[in-house]
Amino acid sequence: MPVACCLRTALYLEGSIKIFQGNYIQLPRIGVVKTYEILPNCKVKNVRISKRADNWYISFKYDIEPVPTEKVEETIGVDIGINTLATCSDGSKFANVKAYRQAKKRLVRHQRAVSKKVIGSKNRIKAVKKLAKLHKKAEFLVLIFEQFLSILA
User: Fold this and answer.
1) Which residue of 5, 7, 47, 97 has the lowest C-beta tally within 10 Å?
2) How many domains is the chain partitioned into structurally?
3) Each residue of 23-35: pLDDT tens digit?
């Protein structure tokens, strides 16, 4: 059995999908699933269920009218640098996060460990799962960094 098929899978569902009690969702062929987040009370078009590094994720597609909000803060300038992540024109500074650099070092170390394992062995499968978890953490660090930059922009 190839290892790659077990590490990342996805399932698309359409049809009679219902949200009830805020964080429960009724899915066809699966049943009732509890989520960590409170879901909006609207009609869901379809659902994608995916497994990544031993964790399950669910994403929705639904129509909802956005509520416009007024901006109350004044405009400031942002300088993105090397020593500090961002320096604002009002004097506030945001520290540069070194976590991604450390995550890359861990990825290199675990990738080397995977390459030294015998192909098809249980220890290699365990090492590949651990490497997948580290890849997921590094990807989330990049997403958080991009979200932070989009907030500043």
Assistant:
1) 5
2) 2
3) 888 888 888 988 8
